[in-house]
Amino acid sequence: MKKTIAKRDVARFLARLLEDYTVYAPTRVAEIVSFRQIGSPNDVDWDTLVTRKPPKEVFFPQTEVLFSYEQADGGLALRSTEAVETERIVWGIRPCDVRALLVQDRVFDTPDARDVYFVNKREKTTLVGIGCNKPLATCFCTSLGGGPFEKQGLDLFLTDIGDSYLAEALTGRGKKLLGEDYFKKPTKADLKAAQEVEEAALARLPQPVDTETVKQRLDEMIDSPFWDEIQAVCLGCGVCTFLCPVCHCFDIVDEGSAACGQRIRNWDTCQYCVYTLEASGHNPRPSGRERVRQRLMHKLSYQPVTQGRLGCVGCGRCVQLCPVNIDIRQTLAELGASA
Amino acid sequence: MQELTEAIQREAKRLLDSGEVDVVIGFTKGTLPMRAAPVVIRKAADSERLVWGPFCENNLARYLRGVRDKRVAIVAKGCDTRSIVALINEHQLEREKLYIIGVPCEGMIDRRIVPRRAPGEVTSVHQDGDEVVVEGDGFSIRLPRSEVLYRSCAACVHPNPVIYDVLLAEPVEVTSGDPFAYVRQIEEKPAAERAAYFASEAQRCIRCYACRQACPMCYCEECFVDHTAPRWMETGVTPAGQQAWQIGRAYHLVGRCVNCGACERACPTEIDLVYLNGKSSRTVWELFGFEAGVEVDKPPPLAVFLPDEDPDVS
Questions:
Q1: Complex-level ipTM beyond the 0.90 threshold
Q2: Contacts of A279 (CB under 8 A, 6+ apart)
Q3: A63–B236: do the CB atoms touch at under 8 Å?
């Protein structure tokens, strides 16, 4: 189902949604645009295409209390934090970030293991996506099978067609939102405009990479000097992984005392030396060489097997923010080039 | 810039051809506008990959401890050489094994500020005398260079290498401004306002430790935040964890930081680390008259004990 909504009505629509939902949207705080809970439609940043932090933190916060405990009346009182009370909306999520969420689904929600903290939030959330009319120079979703108007995983998809948005409902949840009276039937011109912005966006983006070749090459590169070259300049910080919408590693710690405390889950990263440090003192990934290799191997070789999807969606955050300009697009180009 | 690039390439080629050094650490062209990338050159023929320009923002001294088994040449601007001196003074490097290719520095352009002054996505930036030409889809604007320098560069009083084996250009003129002007500007605010400022900055910390990893002086075998048995501090991105990390990091650099700004440039959430480190450097300057990394054989004040020193500051 497709309808249109005039841009001047969007604020009223969002205000209406705020009555029933907890809404997360891109907001700007001290020049950093990330997904945060909004209190008013005015909080939304409409201009930023790729947010600094990915929206994964709405479902998988960097620091999340799993439960807290307290000694009371001779017993131990446990307080769970897994329940999610209100319905949520993530507003303005981009196709690459949704694609990343679909990989995370296959990590946190499998037949063998369901992570209630992640799943409960996912189940309560309606995803309202928006297409990317003007992809950035660092965007490369099309290299890896995605696209700036890819709709998979979304409930409602918006296309900016000038004075209004074309809104396409993709699920029952999405359809429910279109029931509001701001939505009109689209004209032929609206549909044509949407097609035109999509074509223009695609023309700005790179050609697909042969990811099968990349995987095959990587599988023979465990001992390659290729990793020494990257390691020589890699700082070993957590920027690329923490800001990656797909990366999902975590560490669980207990903080507090015997009397009271919390069990906390924090993001972790394969780029840290302590990530694989064992209690014996042995570290199976002792140097940056093994760690930079792990990141790329996991994304481009292991995850296509374990999750059936690539671990990179081409959002370009790691490209933009690596302090030493290590660029995964170069790696892909080198490894994917025909022999 | 082109002349300096060529001079660096020639020097690197000479050093590698003659076998004087095993590797040359420098910058190569980046993949984005306003970026140069650190590079390690091992073959003379690869010397042509080296470049110099207003985007060579990283402190390359950070890489030196990792190649201590080799004879190394390093392309070094003022702040890189100060870090080298500080590392020598802390017995982390041997001067004899290093060949320092000194490059006087006019200051690096802040890649975070420039896009905020442009009407669209920036696709190309180059320097034209005192101006920076910024281009993108349908626009070309010129900004005064002085307005888009990194804050640490704008306040720099040691743009010329303090130690080198060869200096590839005439020293640049040193502006005799107050290097701590920005620190003082914040210090003048009431304590509650300063505390609130620090809290709001630290609140953006994602504990990626890019600040630590970019810093030549952060070389501990085990960082205090990585100590897990027992754990020494909160692990999460809570105010307690974020502030403890930022304060702990800054404290460990007192009298050792050369104020190069590499930590702040690496920070993905743009936390004002130049203030935090500048504050400690100003304090050290006023108490001890000491600047880190300016003289070889002059150890940092907090690393020495003098029997007759003023007990109020010891």
A1: yes
A2: none
A3: yes
